[in-house]
Amino acid sequence: MTALLRYHTALLLRSQRWLPPVLLYAAFLGIGVRPGEPVLGALGWTAAGLLPVTAWLVRVCLNQEPAAARHVTAAAAGRERVHLTAIGAATVCAGLMGAAAVAAVTALGAPVNAGREVLVPRLPAALAGLVTAAVCVLLGAAVGALGTRPLVRARAWSISVIAVAALLALVTAGSPARQAVTALVTGSRTGTVEHPWTALAGAVALAAVAVALACRLTARRE
């Protein structure tokens, strides 16, 4: 598994297909985050952007191998394992990017609420940001896994499905991503830091089901 993770990560980095989603995320942060603004609101924005970016990276990792190379690695390690490690490589890369963004935003943001009347401790705020980022990364991985092969093969349909599903995951009532991001936004108004552990548990469960389904189907359809 470790060798396959390194293999997919190396493919991703060498292909430079990571540039568009990373540049999109950088632009997203540049538009929505300013130094000195309340830290909790900035962390909510930072985490929300990770969901579509992670889904995009998962799609890239699952489609970056040429068909012939994919058949070779599948014959050597099994299709389900290869599919799983491709999703894992994208998820790890997105998680590291998110952790770096949360650290930077926590350092640059002002430790106050939106009204600048209540002090917000940085370490609890950073932990809340990391948990929310993890929720969005996990749901992004689920969206990416279900929005590309073997379930959706056509590129245009895949991109459309991923874009719509990522948006719905952020705005639909009951979504773990919406719950976690809303907790940060609400905390930015009140100055109260809440750690969305329940949302994280829900995201873990949804991601596990989505990835397991995608891996099982790739073994049957490819």
Describe this protein's structure:
With 222 residues, the chain is mostly helical. Helix content is 79%, strand content 0%. The protein contains ten helices and no strands. The protein has helices at residues 2-15, 19-32, 39-48, 50-63, 67-77, 79-108, 122-146, 155-171, 176-190, 197-221. It starts with a helix and ends with a helix.
Strand content bin: under 5%
Note the total helix count. 10
Supply Rg: 18 Å
Which ranges are low-confidence, i.e. pLDDT below 50, for 5 or more consecutive residues? none
Approximate helicity band = over 70%
Number of strands: 0
The domain count comes to: 1
Structural class by sheet pairing and helices: mainly alpha
The end-to-end distance, rounded to whole angstroms, is 20 Å
Largest sheet: none
Specify the overall morphology: elongated
- The pLDDT mean sits at 94
Order of helices and strands: HHHHHHHHHH
Task: Walk me through the topology.
Layout: H1 2-15, H2 19-32, H3 39-48, H4 50-63, H5 67-77, H6 79-108, H7 122-146, H8 155-171, H9 176-190, H10 197-221
Give the tags.
222 residues, mainly alpha, 10 helices, 79% helix, 0% strand
